[in-house]
Amino acid sequence: MGANGADGGPGARGAGRSRGLLRLPDAYVGAARRSLRVTLAAGAGFYLFLYGFDQPVAATYALFAAVSLAGLSHIPGTGRQRAVVLVKLLPAAWALVAVGTFLAVRNWSAVAGMLVIGFALAFVAVGGPRPAGAAPGLQLLYILPSFPPYAPETIDERMAGTTVGILLLILAETFVFPEPPTVPYRELAARAAVTAERCAGELARAPFALPPATVEAAGVADEALRPSQVPEAERPAGAGVRSRGLTHTGLSARTLLHRLTRLPAVPADSAPEDAGLDLLRAVGRSAADSAALLRGAPGAGEDPGPARERALLAAVPTRSADPATLRRRASLLEVADAALALSTAAGLAVRGRLVDGAEPAVGRFWYARMRAPQLWWRRLVGNAGSRSVFFQNAVRISLALGAARAIAGLDTLPHGFWALLATLTLTRTTLGATWGSIRQAVAGTLIGALCTAGLLALIGADTTVYAAMLLPLLLITFTVGPVKGVGWAQAFFALVVSLVFAQLTATTWRLAEVRILDVLIGSAIGAVFGLLAWPRGAQTEVRRSNTVLLRTAAETVVATASTIAAGGVRDPDAPPPVSGSLRHALVLAETAYAQFQSEPRGPATGAPGSGGPPGKGRRTVDNQAVLLTGHHALWGAERLLAAPPPVPAEKAPGPVDVAPLEPAVAAVVTRLGDRVAGRMLLLSALLDPTGDAPPPAVPDLPSRAADASETAPAEAPGGFYAVESWLEALLQDLERIDRSSHTP
Questions:
Q1: In this structure, are residues 708 and 603 in contact, taking their beta carbons and an 8 Å threshold?
Q2: Who's near 174: CB < 8 A, 6+ residues apart?
Q3: Is 656 helix (H, G, I), strand (E, B) or coil?
């Protein structure tokens, strides 16, 4: 090799510098690949119809169909995944073009359509990242035909152009620079299940403890299932049974790993039958079966739910024992519960909706028997309120687009389409972000307009030059714009617009003047509605929803503890009485946090994950810890209040009368629940965005839910320790929230 070879001599270093100079940054490489796809699709459709068939209307729609769904939309996933989404969106594109064409007959009908359709397209973001990413492009497909001239006779050309543009984009996404597939969420959940099997197997063998390597592997598998670590296209965010089941699979797998890695040690001098080794082996087999089912192994997961539940519960140690053994038994019950949840959720994720008569009936899998329209309706209704960020965004953009369409309908505003496009692309979820995008956009548009005016004045009516320049400029626009920001995008897009219109009709340098006017009007409308409609975006809403979530969880804890203490009738066919309001609070908190993560961060808003801007009177908050607390409260309440299995096992399930606890035991359970609920209320006051009271001091509490003053009475049954274990887990979650809130 010598000095100039692989040994790292001067020649090798020089070659490395040369290669580094020639290599583009990764951001530009990715943007260039996406830009090449949209350029090929848009350019091919535009040239085909304009110069091949002499149909300028179809050419316009072919170009903007590709630009809207690839340049303006941000559909997550690989090229092939986006192509599948585009195939499904084709009928929606036809409907939007047709409705926009016929509503353009009058200005009032066009404005009304803009309000209704603008709201609907923005509100479909409740369906997950793919509908949310496609919504802006679909908005543009409706905006384009909703302007004069009213020409229903051109509907066939508009439809043809739209269809060809989208089909060309589908081909480009599929075959141009195909990207490697990402790891599906089902596979990530299967890997976590395999890790859980490994943990359960090692806990069932001497020395009955997990080695550090296994604990580390469990942490890696748990972290891989966090939504922030999963590619956006792979996150199960839909409203259907399979998507909800897959979400539940991930949560169950993470819970099972957490329970296994924190299982109390086997007490000294404990009898083998009290250690729960048979249960751990059964959990390992269940986790392995869930992993095989998620990976599509034939015959996997055929064990019916009730049979598996009976097998796991039969392995739980039941002998009378000392408190340490009883606490381990309660933890083993939580392990079994997580394993059963994983098995059921995996079945729903793979097979879909359960038929009537199949398990489970109610509780955490309330959606298992519902059809897709029912589930979608529940999600839409659950977000149809002023506290939902999806509702806020839909109202904001629909009002802004309606106002822009009303102004653009005036005869004195030529090319009003560009005013609506500016409103659509520049309106953000916070006033600060909207104002920042407007400043950059106006500066970029001004520069682009000056270049456009000079270009049109210099070249004149020579369409051959414009045709030759369009494709390179499209490629540059969609490469530089996504990387450099909205100012650069507006500058280059102004040039693209001039090249397109110069080929469609006679154009003068005054087109640049019109473009500036349209962008200014659209920007002003976006700024006004950004100021009037929820100007702080999700920043306040995430704190408000976290406050409501903790207060609802506190109510759930108190109600659950008092219900367990009092006993009563448990009906397996009825949902637990404390789950509805807490589940709804979780939905609103999760949607607010999802938007909060997507909003830009700056000195005024604090770091990602904060509950508000740092500074005097404000503290950063671990929002994920708040959400996990809500989930743990919901799942624990549902599990503890569920009807016990029938005895004997062959008996048909039905309402069960649960005996009340002994007075001394009931008093301890009630006090423990009150203590945890009180801490939830104190922390909720810290997060309350109204700020109408000074932040309370949250006292330090023992690490366990029951300290020396709340020892278990001698007559405490095993169920007492299950409640104590649940409250202790909640207390650990609250301590994590409290620690984060102490950091200014």
A1: no
A2: 79, 80, 83
A3: strand
DSSP string covering 56-85: HHHHHHHHHHHIIIIII----S-HHHHHHH
Question: In terms of C-beta density within 10 A (0-12 exposed, 13-18 middle, 19 or more buried), how is residue 655 classed?
Answer: exposed
Per-range mean pLDDT, top range of 45-49, 433-437, 638-642:
45-49
Please give the angle made by the CA atoms of 511, 513 and 518, to the nearest 5 degrees: 95
Angstrom distances, CA of residue 651 to CA of 316, 648, 658: 20, 6, 17
Measured in residues, the chain has a length of 744
Q: Distance between CA atoms of 234 and 35, rounded to whole angstroms?
A: 23
pLDDT tens-digit readout, 667-716? 888 888 999 999 899 888 887 766 655 555 555 555 454 444 455 666 66
Contact by Cβ (8 Å): 375, 575: no
**Distance in angstroms (rounded) separating the CA atoms of residues 328 and 259:** 11
The number of C-alpha atoms within 13 Å of 62 and in the hemisphere containing its C-beta is: 27
357: number of CA atoms within 13 Å, CB side?
0
CB of 63 closer than 8 Å to CB of 500? yes
- Using an 8 Å Cβ cutoff, are 66 and 496 in contact? no
Over 90: is that where the pLDDT of 518 sits?
no
Query: Mean per-residue pLDDT for 358-372?
Result: 70
Asked whether 92 and 162 are in contact (CB, 8 A), the reply is no
Average pLDDT over residues 178-206: 92
Q: Helix, strand, or coil here: 568? A: strand
Determine the Cα–Cα distance for residues 186 and 721; give it in Å rounded to an integer. Answer: 34
Q: How many CA atoms lie within 13 A of 217 on its CB side?
A: 16
Between CA 2 and CA 733 the distance in angstroms is 60
| Tokens matching residue 570 | 């448990």
What is the Cα–Cα distance from 150 to 244, expressed in whole angstroms? 44
User: Is it the case that residue 194 has pLDDT exceeding 70?
Assistant: yes
Give which of 279, 296, 312 is closest to 347, Cα–Cα.
296
Tens of pLDDT along 135-190?
A: 989 998 998 888 777 788 899 999 999 999 999 999 999 999 888 888 999 999 99
Q: What is the rounded distance in angstroms from the CA atom of residue 63 to the CA atom of residue 45?
A: 6
Q: pLDDT of 292-349, one tens digit each?
A: 999 988 766 665 555 666 666 666 666 556 777 777 888 888 888 889 889 989 989 9
Phi and psi torsions of 587, nearest 5°: -60, -50
Give how far the C-alpha of residue 299 lies from the chain's centroid of Cα atoms, to the nearest Å.
32
- Pair 312, 256: CB distance under 8 Å: no
- Alpha carbons within 13 A on the beta-carbon side of 566: 9
| Residues facing 615 on adjacent strands | 618
Say if residues 478 and 63 touch (Cβ distance below 8 Å): no
Task: Name residue 304's amino acid.
Answer: P
| Average pLDDT value for residue range 521-531 | 71
The span from the CA of 514 to the CA of 519, in Å, is 9
Rounded CA separation 109/100 (Å) = 10
Distance CA 658, CA 643 (A): 8
Residues β-bridged to residue 568: 658
In sequence order, what are the beta bridge partners of 657?
569
> How far is the C-alpha of 681 from the C-alpha of 677, rounded, in Å?
6
Residues with Cβ < 8 Å from 228, sequence gap 6 or more? 597
Of 504, 507, 519, the C-alpha closest to 161 is: 504
* Tokens encoding 612: 């508000």
Please determine, for residue 196, whether its predicted confidence score (pLDDT) is greater than 90.
Answer: yes
Count Cβ atoms below 10 Å from residue 513 Cβ, excluding itself.
Answer: 14
Residues 559-615 have pLDDT tens digits of 999 888 888 777 666 666 666 788 888 878 877 776 665 544 443 333 333 333 333
